[in-house]
Design brief:
Shape: globular
Strand content: under 5%
Number of domains: 1
Distance between the termini: 30 Å
Structural class: mainly alpha
Number of helices: 6
Radius of gyration: 16 Å
Oligomer: single chain
């Protein structure tokens, strides 16, 4: 069996962060919270949609998180959701001008996977699997 002695382009040999570890969650949560709300602001996402993107977080917890008052760490699911959104944000800003990158998420899309809806509506309805598909779509466009 052949073994690669050099890293493959685009892939890191570092182990992925253990997002089930409470200490890792605590360490990553402040940056994830900050990134999420910066992206939500850039994309002009309403609070109801933002709560859904975070997996249906309650009003109280959402506004504590938004105000920086929530002291508990984000769980594994929410960290993954934020990571996917950061990847989508990065891909959009690589592919398009800032103005279009920020608007793309809220524009009706003719790609069959969106069925004429906005990518935001698609991700709100489909949750984490839909976010993964949008990320994959944009990453494929970056490489093409």
């Amino acid at each position: 069996m052949a073994v690669l002695s050099q890293p493959v382009a685009g892939f890191s040999s570092e182990a992925a962060a253990n997002l089930s570890d409470k200490q890792v969650q605590k360490r990553l949560s402040p940056a994830a919270r900050k990134a999420f709300f910066k992206i939500a602001d850039a994309w002009k996402i309403r609070d109801d949609e933002a709560k859904q993107l975070l997996g249906g977080i309650s009003n109280g917890a959402f506004y504590q998180l938004k105000g920086g008052a929530l002291k508990t760490a984000l769980d594994q699911d929410r960290l993954v959701r934020v990571s996917l959104l950061v990847g989508i944000f990065k891909a959009l800003n690589t592919l398009y001008s800032q103005k279009l990158a920020d608007a793309w998420i809220s524009l009706p899309n003719t790609n069959p996977m969106f069925s004429g809806e906005t990518p935001l509506a698609y991700m709100v309805k489909g949750g984490q699997p839909a976010m993964m598909r949008v990320r994959q779509l944009l990453d494929a466009r970056r490489v093409a």
